[in-house]
Design a protein that fits this description.
Blueprint (H helix, E strand, L loop, with lengths): L7 E4 L17 E6 L7 E6 L4 E5 L3 E3 L12 E3 L5 E8 L2 E6 L2 E10 H6 L3 E2 L10 H8 L10
Antiparallel strand pairs: 1-2, 1-5, 2-3, 3-4, 6-7, 6-10, 7-8, 8-9
Length: 149
């Protein structure tokens, strides 16, 4: 699995740089703060406790974004169903796009304010229902829906 700086991770198995199993940090959560080392197997994680460790990538699991674990690119949905994209995070400030226009920055909140205002992380597995007209507008041309073969 590829990890990038800022990803939230769970340490399922704590391996040392030499590949030996340590187990000291099993179950701990943190954020990737440095990319892969030269050997391509070790990554630096800042644990939620503030401690920075180096661990083997084979023992890590990427955590899905939640309101307590926002990351750049996360789509947020408000109570009315309108969406904003997280464009940046600086400390506790979350910079958000315009409603339903993810290329333009509009506002900023703290995660606590977003939760208080009823925002939720969009379920990426959710099936979106669309009309033929909506699909046509999305692809920019007229479409005809056919059955799978």
């Amino acid at each position: 699995m590829n990890f990038k700086i800022g990803d939230r991770v769970l340490i399922e198995k704590d391996y040392l740089r030499n590949g030996e199993y340590s187990g000291i940090f099993n179950g701990k959560k943190g954020q990737v703060v440095y990319g892969l080392t030269t050997g391509g197997y070790c990554i630096h994680i800042k644990l939620d406790s503030g401690v920075v460790i180096a661990t083997h990538i084979k023992g890590l699991k990427k955590l899905e974004a939640t309101m307590d674990n926002l990351e750049v690119g996360t789509i947020l949905v408000d109570k009315s169903g309108s969406e904003r994209k997280v464009l940046g995070i600086c400390g506790e400030v979350v910079f958000c796009s315009l409603y339903n226009d993810f290329d333009i920055a509009e506002t900023y909140y703290t995660a606590k304010e977003l939760k208080k205002d009823g925002y939720k992380v969009k379920d990426q597995n959710e099936v979106k229902e669309m009309t033929v007209k909506e699909v046509s507008e999305l692809v920019g041309q007229e479409v005809k829906i056919v059955e799978d073969k």
